[in-house]
């Protein structure tokens, strides 16, 4: 009985952070972020070698069969380094989608391809998650038509998984007839969104084997929310660490600015807000696997709370850097925008808290 | 992370729920740390101790339940009591601060003598730390204790001594080695409040009540063995106590109790027949606080695990007091707002009777500011977080105004 990480998890987090620190010095990050696709083939391969692609894929399908807490640690590391790599949708939500609503044949066909890094799936919801933008999909005679905006991990995706309002999900191949995918470079250049226009596209798989498709879809949404919370935790921790380092070296009035209480208290406030978030994210991730009765509520609460804390830390950490924080030179803005992205995708804090109220039975859906 | 409930845990949860269902009529109102426990509170405390729902991990020879440390068990018990809105027992300075201090640095004899009566609520302690001239700068304490024929002879003044007017004992930080540098000249003494030469004067606060006191010492004599650790080690002991005080002040179970009380209030139909919980603007305020309380509770479980594994949590621990007291005040703020004009009637009952709900919330709302200031103010906490937690440099010393030291 313990509330904390195992040695293996600590080691995994360290090695992933070490890899990313090595691969993503600021000049490399700038180069990879420039196209705004949120994808780089070489970085993707490297992450695959560390086992990220198949992290959640069960062992019988060629993955590592690890849990949501391990995935949250990966998301945290990716957020810390603002890594331009598909993850929350392509490697977590998509896997959960197949596991919760795919039949045996679909799992056998697609999970190994995800684990090999061959299938990179962008994912979006029509309804359910508080997404804004166009969300009108029709499935008629086995063909999908309409529009769905803002699919996550959409840049350079091989496939798109589009959730219908009834909770079923259709897997579409990018580039198939009737599929128009428009890349939307987001304010966070390390992750892209895709707008889909579909004109009678033929899905390569329809995930509908769950008894309760809406509940299955919500589990996928919740998995995504936990990953975004973890991503914000990492990005905000990075900004705090850099603010503290800067406050320890920048000299004004003959003193390092970190000795001024005004600056010190900004750092202390950031740490006070952020430190309890770590345990909250751990628990939210753990609950997805182990505490089903609380999973939905804590996922939405973690997403909302991290969004609020993330916004404060993003502002304060930038402020501690003075004018330099506002420039492009330090690259602090990559994490700043990462936090912005995490907040606005899959439902903002108000929407997430509403979902938390529904999940604990305070109000009807 | 392994929070799997074993059959033993499930049995404990059922057992606690059954206990609460069977005994809830005997429970005093939650809170009450600002008064001497009455018969009802003492009986309730005895019942909790007997069942191991209080002082669960304190060894039996010191009056505890003697169970092995298990984070989940403690969480199950705390959760059951806060869900039910039932008093989890007495939380005062003796129980939450002195007892863990003695467990950490006290002698065997001190543990056997003081812990049992303290956790039973029979011996009430107050804390002799702050002085008019040393508040945030605690180590500047000037209250003197000179040694004469086997006794410390204490002279000086303490302030903000909450509970001194009904306490039996005081743990006192005073200067015994005046020739030593500031921090090395202090000792930590255990002083009976009925000793001749102690005078307690009530200090009325903004709540209209006198929760605090000024305490004056004139040639107060205590035997030299009434000291925790040695002479000149008082600063170390005081900081052990402060560590526990700060964890007490940020206690997430208290936050959870408060949150649940507000949720219940917002679930009741109001004068217009509708529930505040059904209105989005009120619900969102409550939900926002729920998320923050949730983070605090999970953080606490992490700290308890680290404590059990002998890991010093550092930053994780330093933030607790500042985080918890600010959040507590925001919870009380929402309670006042939710009550609106019906939360304004204010009739504090003093020591004798229980306050009504509106008065209690108003007192909490004001008293919370005292807690934000006391136990090391928020600014002191932020210094500690910044300097010890994050490694930022100390403020350079500035000269005192002429004529002051």
From TrEMBL, chain A:
Keywords annotated in UniProt: FAD, Flavoprotein, Oxidoreductase
Domain called Acyl-CoA dehydrogenase/oxidase C-terminal: residue spans: 222-343
Organism: Belnapia rosea
GO molecular function: acyl-CoA dehydrogenase activity; flavin adenine dinucleotide binding
Positions of the Acyl-CoA dehydrogenase/oxidase N-terminal domain: 6-118
Protein name: Acyl-CoA dehydrogenase
Family of this protein: Belongs to the acyl-CoA dehydrogenase family.
Top-level taxon of origin: Bacteria
UniProt cross-references to PANTHER family, sorted A to Z: ACYL-COA DEHYDROGENASE, ACYL-COA DEHYDROGENASE FADE28
Gene3D superfamilies given in the database record: Acyl-CoA dehydrogenase/oxidase, N-terminal domain (1.10.540.10), Butyryl-CoA Dehydrogenase, subunit A, domain 3 (1.20.140.10)
Cofactor(s) needed: FAD
Database matches in InterPro entries: AcylCo_DH-like_C, AcylCo_DH/oxidase_C, AcylCoA_DH/ox_N, AcylCoA_DH/ox_N_sf, AcylCoA_DH/oxidase_NM_dom_sf
UniProtKB/TrEMBL annotation, chain B:
GO CC, alphabetical: plasma membrane
Pfam family, one: Acyl-CoA_dh_M
Acyl-CoA oxidase/dehydrogenase middle domain sequence ranges: 126-220
Keyword Disulfide bond: no
Coiled coil location: none
Acyl-CoA dehydrogenase/oxidase C-terminal domain mapped to chain residues: 232-389
Occurrences of domain Acyl-CoA dehydrogenase/oxidase N-terminal (ranges): 6-122
GO MF annotation terms: flavin adenine dinucleotide binding; oxidoreductase activity, acting on the CH-CH group of donors
Cofactor dependency: FAD
Keywords linked to the UniProt accession: FAD, Flavoprotein, Oxidoreductase
Family: Belongs to the acyl-CoA dehydrogenase family.
PANTHER family in alphabetical order: ACYL-COA DEHYDROGENASE, ACYL-COA DEHYDROGENASE FADE29
Protein name: Acyl-CoA dehydrogenase
Lineage of producing organism: Bacteria, Pseudomonadati, Pseudomonadota, Alphaproteobacteria, Acetobacterales
């Amino acid at each position: 009985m313990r509330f904390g990480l195992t040695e293996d998890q600590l080691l995994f987090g360290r090695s992933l952070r070490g890899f990313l620190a090595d691969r993503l010095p600021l000049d490399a990050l700038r180069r990879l972020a420039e196209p705004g696709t949120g994808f780089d083939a070489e970085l993707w391969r490297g992450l695959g070698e560390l086992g990220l692609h198949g992290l959640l894929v069960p062992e019988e399908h060629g993955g590592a069969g690890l849990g949501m807490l391990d995935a949250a640690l990966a998301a945290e590391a990716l957020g810390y380094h603002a890594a331009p790599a598909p993850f929350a949708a392509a490697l977590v939500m998509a896997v959960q989608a197949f596991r919760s609503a795919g039949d045996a044949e679909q799992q056998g066909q697609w999970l190994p391809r995800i684990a090999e890094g061959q299938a990179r799936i962008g994912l979006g919801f029509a309804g359910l998650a508080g997404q804004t933008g166009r969300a009108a999909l029709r499935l008629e005679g086995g063909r999908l038509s309409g529009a769905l905006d803002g699919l996550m991990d959409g840049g350079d995706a091989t496939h798109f998984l589009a959730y219908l309002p009834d909770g079923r999900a259709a897997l579409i191949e990018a580039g198939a007839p009737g599929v128009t995918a428009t890349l939307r470079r987001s304010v966070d250049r390390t992750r892209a969104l895709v707008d889909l226009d579909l004109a009678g596209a033929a899905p390569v798989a329809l995930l509908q084997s769950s008894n309760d498709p809406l509940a299955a879809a919500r589990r996928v949404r919740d998995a995504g929310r936990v990953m975004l919370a973890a991503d914000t935790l990492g990005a905000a921790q990075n900004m705090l660490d850099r603010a503290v380092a800067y406050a320890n070296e920048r000299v004004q009035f003959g003193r390092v600015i970190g000795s001024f209480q005004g600056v010190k208290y900004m750092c202390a406030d950031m740490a006070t807000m952020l430190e309890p978030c770590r345990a909250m994210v751990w628990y939210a991730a753990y609950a997805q696997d182990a505490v089903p009765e609380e999973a939905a509520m804590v996922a939405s609460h973690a997403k909302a709370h991290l969004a609020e804390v993330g916004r404060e830390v993003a502002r304060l950490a930038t402020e501690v850097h003075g004018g330099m924080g506002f420039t492009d030179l330090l690259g602090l803005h990559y994490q700043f925008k990462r936090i912005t992205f995490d907040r606005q995708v899959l439902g903002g804090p108000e929407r997430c808290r509403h979902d938390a109220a529904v999940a604990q039975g305070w109000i009807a859906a | 992370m392994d929070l799997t409930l074993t059959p033993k845990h499930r049995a404990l949860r059922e057992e606690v729920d059954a206990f609460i269902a069977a005994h809830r009529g005997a429970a005093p109102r939650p809170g009450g740390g600002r008064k001497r426990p009455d018969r009802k509170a003492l009986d309730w405390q005895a019942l909790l101790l007997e069942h191991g729902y209080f002082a669960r991990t304190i060894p039996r020879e010191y009056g505890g339940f003697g169970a092995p440390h298990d984070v989940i068990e403690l969480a199950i018990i705390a959760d059951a009591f806060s869900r039910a809105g039932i008093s989890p027992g007495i939380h005062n300075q003796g129980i939450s601060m002195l007892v863990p201090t003695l467990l950490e640095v006290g002698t065997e004899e001190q543990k056997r003598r003081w812990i049992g009566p303290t956790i039973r609520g029979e011996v009430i302690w107050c804390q002799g730390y702050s002085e008019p001239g040393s508040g945030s700068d605690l180590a500047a304490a000037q209250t003197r204790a000179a040694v004469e024929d086997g006794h410390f002879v204490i002279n000086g003044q303490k302030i903000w001594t909450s509970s001194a007017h009904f306490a039996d004992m005081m743990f006192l930080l005073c200067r015994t080695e005046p020739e030593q540098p500031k921090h090395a000249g202090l000792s930590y003494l255990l002083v009976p409040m009925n000793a001749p030469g102690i005078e307690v004067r009530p200090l009325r606060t903004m709540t209209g009540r006198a929760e605090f006191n000024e305490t004056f010492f004139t040639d107060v004599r205590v035997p030299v063995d009434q000291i925790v650790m040695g002479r000149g080690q008082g600063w170390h002991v005081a900081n052990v106590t402060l560590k526990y005080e700060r964890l007490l002040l940020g206690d997430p179970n208290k936050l959870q109790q408060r949150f649940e009380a507000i949720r219940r209030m917002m679930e009741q139909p109001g004068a217009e027949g509708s529930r505040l919980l059904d209105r989005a603007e009120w619900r969102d305020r409550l939900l926002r606080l729920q998320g923050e309380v949730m983070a605090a509770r999970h953080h606490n479980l992490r700290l308890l695990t680290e404590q059990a594994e002998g890991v010093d949590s550092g930053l994780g621990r330093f933030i607790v007091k500042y985080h918890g007291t600010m959040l507590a005040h925001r919870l009380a703020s929402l309670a006042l707002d939710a009550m609106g004009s019906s939360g304004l009637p204010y009739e504090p009952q003093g020591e004798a009777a229980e306050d009504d709900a509106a008065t209690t919330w108003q007192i909490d709302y004001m008293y919370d500011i005292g807690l934000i200031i006391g136990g090391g103010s928020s600014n002191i906490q932020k210094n500690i977080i910044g300097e010890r937690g994050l490694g930022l440099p100390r403020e350079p010393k500035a000269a005192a105004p002429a004529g002051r030291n």
